[in-house]
Amino acid sequence: MTLKNKLYTITDMEHEGEMTRFSLNLNAEHEIYGAHFPGEPVTPGVCLVQMAGELLEECLGRKLQLKKAVNVKFLSPVSPVITPSVRFTVSPDPADADGLIRSSVRVEYESRVMAKMSLIHSPAV
Hints:
By secondary structure, the protein is of the alpha+beta class. It contains two helices and six strands; from the N terminus they run ββααββββ.
């Protein structure tokens, strides 16, 4: 399930070497927030991981499949009410001999780090 243009929209993207910074707006009206959590919406961690994968696809211009979440730390809740605009910094490494792509992702609101991820993706089948 793609979350882009449903749960979030990309408002800006800037490249710096292999790193790409995405500015995103969260959609507080998305149905996921009705269940997670009513009255105090929080973006589910699995959605943040999915968003990171979609943004990596945006960087590389191809479809990918998550193979492994090596290290994922959720440091502060990401809320469409309290933190409606977040920044994802995506830093992929070149694909290894098996075609696997390792990436580091940071999610920030203003100067506060909300989440950190180390992910491994493969080309989508």
